[in-house]
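Lab notes, practical 5.
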Amino acid sequence: MGVKGGELPGEQKQVHVVAPISRGGQAIGQSGDLEGGVAQAAAGATGVQMVIDKIKK
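Output from the prediction step:
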């Protein structure tokens, strides 16, 4: 997770959410893993929908 210098995650109004899905069960991403994300989600929002639509090269 990355935030601007000196700011805490809870102080953010908008967040970028990314979800990697490991094909081989590894913690570090590898070629062939699936991933998706939501570029702008309101912090604390519920019901945010994400589409897993990319394959890591």
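Observations recorded by the TA: The CA atoms of residues 4 and 27 lie 25 Å apart. The chain is about 0% helix and 35% strand.
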